[in-house]
Design a protein that fits this description.
Order of helices and strands: HH
Distance between the termini: 78 Å
Shape: elongated
Number of strands: 0
Low-confidence stretches: none
Radius of gyration: 20 Å
Helix content: 55-70%
Oligomer: single chain
Mean pLDDT: 82
Largest sheet: none
Number of helices: 2
Structural class: mainly alpha
Length: 78
C-alpha cells in the first residue's frame, strides 16, 4: 500500500528566517500582494518574486551605492 502524504525531502536544506515590517501607506503594494497569498504559500511567492528579478535589482542598487560612497570619499579626501 502506498504511503500517504507528501514524500520526505531527501535534499539538504538551508534555513533562512526573514522578518518584514511593512508600513501602511508606504508599502501598500507589498501588503496587498502578501495579504492575497495564504500564509503557508508566502515563502513560495517570495522565492518566485526574487527569481523574477528582485535579486538582480538588489545587486545593482548595492553597486550604485558603492560607487556613490567611493565618489563621496574621493571628494572628501581632496
Amino acid at each position: 500500500m502506498a504511503s500517504r502524504g507528501r514524500p520526505k525531502v531527501t535534499t539538504e536544506t538551508w534555513d533562512c528566517q526573514i522578518h518584514l515590517r511593512l508600513r501602511v501607506g508606504e508599502d501598500d503594494d507589498l501588503i496587498q500582494f502578501l495579504a492575497a497569498i495564504p500564509k503557508r504559500r508566502r515563502a513560495l511567492a517570495f522565492k518566485a518574486a526574487l527569481r523574477a528579478g528582485g535579486m538582480r535589482t538588489a545587486a545593482i542598487a548595492d553597486e550604485n551605492l558603492d560607487d556613490e560612497l567611493a565618489a563621496a570619499a574621493d571628494e572628501f579626501l581632496k
